[in-house]
Structures are given as C-alpha cells and as structure tokens.
Amino acid sequence: MRKVLKKIVFSIPGGPEALAATRARKRRRKVNALRRRCYAADVANDIRYLNWHREGADYWKLSSELIFQHHKLEKGLCLPPEARAWFGRTAALETFRLMEEWKTHGFDRSAPVYQSALGILAAYRARLEGIADDNPERLELIARITAYLEDTAPEPAYATPLPARPAPEGVLPMLQELALARRSTRNFTDRKVDPAMVAEAARIGALAPSACNRQPWKVHLYDDPARIRAMLELQNGNSGFGHTVPLLAVICADQGSFFDSSERFEPVLDGGLFLMSFLYGLQAQGLASCCLNWAVPPERDAEGHARGDIPPEHKILTFLAVGHPAPGAVVPLSGRRPLEDTLHWHSETASVTSPAAAAAQ
C-alpha cells in the first residue's frame, strides 16, 4: 500500500517536493521533542546531583568538599614568591569544619583525603610562622593547625608542595610513539584481561588534572559475556565486533563532586582528561581499546544505569572496549586535520592560517 501511495505522489506535479517537505517537518518535530526531553533531563539531573547537600555520613560529597577547600591552600602555597604571604583564612576555617565533620562520622583518618589535608595544613602553618606580625587571627590559625597535627600526624608521603619536576630528557619521542600506536581496535581475542593491568592504567589515569583536584572519575567494569552483551545492546557503535569484547569499561563521573550547575561541564571535562591517560596506560601495557560513544536519549541512559548497576549520580561518559588485539588485527589510519585547523594564535609574533581560511581570503 505504501508503495502504491508513493507512486501516486511522485506522479503528481510537485508531489516529490511536498513529500520531502512533510518528511522534513516530521524529522524536525522528532528532533525538537528529543531536545526537550534531553534538556529537561539535564536540568533535573543538575538539580538533584550537582550539590554538596548531605544528610548523615556521605563520604563522597564530604571528601569532595574537603579537597575543594584544602586544595585552595595548597594552590596558594605554590604561587610566586612575591604573592601575598598571608592568605587562605576562610579556606582554612572551612577545612577545619569539614575535618570535624569527618571525625564526627568516624571516617578513617589515615585515608588519603584526610592525610592530604594534614600535609597541606602542616605546610600552611610553616608559611604562617614565617610571617612577622602579631595578628591574632594568624596566631589562632597556627594554634588550631598545631592541635590537628598533634592529634593525627600527617604521613611523610603527603608532604606538600613539591619542587616542579620537568619531564625526563628524551621522553617526547616515547610519547609520540605511544600516541601513534593508540588506535581504536575492533577485533579482540577471547583472552581475559588481567585486572592488575587495568588497575595500573587507572593509577596513571588518576594523575590527570581535575577541577580543584576532586578526581570525580568512576570506572565500572564488566567481564561477563552476557552482561557485556546486555550493555552493548544499548550502544549503536559496536556492530560487527561487540561479541569479541572481553572487557567493557564504562567511564563515569560522580556528579556529587561538584557544588552546583555552574560546574555542569566539569564532569565531562575531568572524565575526558582521565580517559585519555587511562587509554595510554592500557596501550603501554599491550592492551587495545575502542571508545564507544554514549550518545543516547534520557530513557536509554537510565536503562544503561539499570543494566550496569551504576548509581544515577555516576554520569555515564562513554563505553570503552578493552582487550588483547586479535592476531592480524588492523586499525584505521584515522587521518588527522592539519595543525592549522587546531591552533588559533592571538599573537603578533605567531600566526597559523588554515587552508579553508586561506581559500576564503
């Protein structure tokens, strides 16, 4: 019946154009409906998860806020020598408040977040003690920091700040080789991936920078074939090779790391920084990987969280196939744009013009 109607429409003058216009309107309505659902889901998500409100013991949000505050002091200690010596009183008071909350909930005082706070406070006290004045606020801070350090001494591993360390000589060619070797692989053996190799790659990934050092990244891992198959059913970029994936990693960011919607882009940015270092860590150990785009409507995103037992506050950023490349596996060249398309100098001493811009001149 559809074929008959289509034949009739195409026989009428202007019929094909009218049909094309009708289809275009239907596509626009569909896209606009999806856009509204996505926007509404994003707003609801931001309101619900991008905050530090907590009732009772909430390790993740408390640790994120504590890092946010004590890292202010740490950054101040790394400013140029001519910067003001007396700084950070508000951040120090907030650090004290959060450390008291930490102790109230009985969280481990040997945990890295708490130990980092102690190490930073020790360095901050040394800075305050080097100031020659009788400011009562400064003296009060020194006394409070001393009390904290006497209660729980910081471990030497958390001493800060550190001397700036340049990269070892000759490391650039090694990085270039690693970057050239890393290509998306879509053909894996059924050999299991050693968890220790994943952990090592994650240690490297965790050295990535993040907003105020809050490290929001989370990685959910699946090595059961049935579980992987169920997850990959929701993703449309694994056709033809998804059945060969021995390990599926779902890269996420915990939205409870951020204080409000002004930081709405940080989960994706910080997670992306972690992901790139994680990929290099996998590649450096002989593992292959393929990022699988998680571009889905809100309903499918919710299904992904449900199937993967992923908490709703863990924002899914991408799926990642990980494994050992099959013998004879090939990868795409993935040709790159010219550098001129990337670098846009705002300088009188250096300029780069892209081919497209040059053609337009």
> What is the β-strand count?
4
Shape: globular
Proportion of residues in extended strands: 5-15%
Q: In which range does the helix fraction lie? A: 40-55%
- What's the tally of helices? 12
Main sheet makeup: 4 strands, antiparallel
Order of helices and strands: HHHHHHHHEHEHEHEH
- Biggest β-sheet: strands ordered side by side in the sheet: 1-2-4-3
CATH topology of the largest domain: NADH Oxidase
Domain tally: 3
The top level CATH class name of the largest domain: Alpha Beta
Could you name the ranges where pLDDT drops below 50 across 5 or more consecutive residues?
Answer: none
* CATH architecture classification name of the largest domain: 3-Layer(aba) Sandwich
Question: Would you summarize the structure shown here?
Answer:
With 361 residues, this protein is α+β, with helices and mostly antiparallel strands. It contains 12 helices and 4 strands.
Structure description:
The protein has about 350 residues and is an alpha+beta fold. It folds into three domains: about 1-50; about 60-160; about 185-325, NADH Oxidase (3-Layer(aba) Sandwich), CATH 3.40.109.10. It is about 50% helix and about 10% strand. It has helices at about 1-10, 15-50, 60-75, 90-105, 110-130, 135-150, 170-180, 195-205, 225-230, 265-285, 300-310, 355-360, and strands at about 215-220, 245-255, 290-295, 315-325. Strands 1-2-4-3 form a four-stranded antiparallel sheet, with helices on both faces. Helix 4 runs parallel beside helix 6 and helix 5 (about 110-130) runs antiparallel to helix 6 (about 135-150). The termini are far apart.
